[in-house]
Amino acid sequence: MKKFFALLKVSLRSMLVISSGVGRGKKKKAVSGIGAVILIAALALYISGVYSTLFVSVLAPVGMESLVFVFMGIAALVTGLMFTAFGASSAVYGGKDNDLLLALPVSSTTLMAARVSAIYLENLLLSFFMLLPAGVACAAFGATPEALTAGFWVRLVLAALLLPLLDTALSVLVGALLAWLSARMKHRAIAQNLIMAVYLVAVFWFAFNLSGMVDSLALNAANIRSSLGWAAPAVWMGDAIMGDWAALGKLALSCVLPCAVVVYGLGKCYRKVVSAFAAKSARNDYRLTAQRSTGCFRALVNKEARRFFGTPTYFWNAGMGPILLVALGVVALIQRGAIDSFMTEVLAEAGEISDLDWLLVAVGWAFMGFCLSLCAISAPSFSLEGKQLWLLRSAPVSEQLLIRVKTWFEVLVSLPCALVSAVCLAIAFGMGPLQTAALLAFPIVFLIGHAYFGTLVGLAFVRTDLDDAAILKRSLLSFLSTFGPLVLLVGVGVGVWQLMSLLAIAAALGIGFAFLAALSIACAIAVHAKGPEMLRKI
Q: Which of 421, 315, 436 is nearest to 369 (CA)?
């Protein structure tokens, strides 16, 4: 067991512990992974808190509160699967330390169990923060006295402990499929990109159809429950929490057995599986061909583009902002009639509102700023080079050019999406030329500052010893490059809101815009002044 817990600690640190190396020759200090834990917990609390309360208010009058736990259980399974399947693909089957760990005097089953246990703990965190708020909603707003008993909470905790076992087994199996596809396919990113695209389409479809689903839920609750045979473990979980101990036994068997089979079965062949994936991923189709001549700048941009669009983990984590920007603009155009009706109602209730167009500009800035904060492309760029970073350092290109390319690639990818979104919002809101120009200027200034700030963070907290998933999802540099600008945006928004009580809305927005422009210029100056020196110290 001592070996198991040592391996579990290593696996858990690689998933939830954020580390940073400061300076050259200094001992790298471990930084707590509290940021990653807070992010997962906050996401789960938001999803469960909002939708559990909504579902309980609809289902309590018909005595079907158990469906709340069914829905939250399915949400926990799907969200956990998307969180950990790609991580399992890279960490379990393609981890950079697999060669070292497989050479240790431990069985492959023990190593597999430690890897799987780390994934279980991440799913467990998500499961608890999905199910416990649902229990609070049932106790506070439900009509069943069972929700106020001690047995209810005991069964709820047991269900929260059991459900992640099934999610973990599914994540490991799907991760194996993704690793196999990555090893077999010439364009290995296509399959993973398609899976994520389907998931996003499903999320957007659910978001747009939620209102109609809630309206029909109370009328068809019994029929909906009878149609959920494909999600039997979630149905058993709902029945178990509401008082059915036999259903709890079924849930335990359906969760424990698959996880045990996966751990034991893959553990027996883990060494062969990892070796086979590594062998398949090694290319054997090298051939000498004529190379087109190109400049250093174009070659570096093409290299960044191949890495960004050819690495699904990179694309879907750092590229979510541009996707949301385009989606925001398209939705605004589709809902243009609803927006016009809403504005008519606002004007009818509040009378003539001065500077209404500028107030809409502030709303557009807020939405675009949130999406642009997710465009963390430049920050992990240096770390994703891994141990091959020395190749770029040895190339006949200046350090300034290398930094400039990695910084402006984020602008090159995100700015067209931001401008399209701004134009769509201007049309949907019916803005005039001056307001449209302000809506177009904001993403340019904010995005340039975000890219340069990301480069500073990426150079200060570079990590070349982690896999792509750890760098993009759980590293300090990704956390700072995303939430730093977001916190700044909230602070500027609060300041502008306070100024609106003293000045005209346009003047307050102008002050906020000037402040963001000054920060962007400061970040650009800092990168050009200190960037080459920071790069040489890596």
A: 421
Rounded to the nearest 10 degrees, how much is the dihedral formed by the CA atoms of 486, 489, 490, 495?
A: 160
- On average, the pLDDT of the chain sits at 80
Dist CA 460 CA 447 (whole Å): 20
- The secondary structure of residue 27, as a DSSP letter, is P
Length of the chain: 538
Q: Write out the two tokens for 41.
A: 């917990």
pTM exceeds cut of 0.85: no
Q: What would the pLDDT profile of 162-186 be if each residue is shown by its tens digit? A: 999 999 999 888 888 877 776 666 5
d(CA 510, CA 534) in angstroms, rounded, equals 34
Q: Which of 453, 446, 480, 478 is nearest to 366 (CA)?
A: 446
One-letter amino acid of 312: P
Per the structure block, which two tokens stand in for 149? 């008993």
**Contact (Cβ atoms closer than 8 angstroms) between residue 376 and residue 318:** yes
Render pLDDT for 337-351 as a digit per residue (tens, 0 to 9).
776 666 666 555 555
Alpha carbons 195 and 189: distance in angstroms, whole number: 10
3-state DSSP assignment of residue 26: coil
Asked if residue 16 has pLDDT above 70, the reply is: no
Number of Cβ within 10 Å of residue 339's Cβ equals 17
Distance CA 515, CA 511 (A): 6
What span, in angstroms and rounded, lies between the C-alpha atoms of 465 and 538?
12
The answer for residues whose C-beta is within 8 angstroms of residue 296's C-beta and 6 or more apart is 395, 396, 397, 401
Q: Which of 178, 199, 222 is nearest to 87 (CA)?
A: 178
Region of poorest pLDDT, from 255-264, 291-300, 356-365, 375-384: 291-300
pLDDT of 25 strictly over 60: no
In whole angstroms, give the CA distance from residue 500 to residue 353.
13
* Closest to 314 (Cα-Cα) out of 222, 388, 436, 406: 406
Which residues are registered as beta bridge partners of 29?
Answer: 20
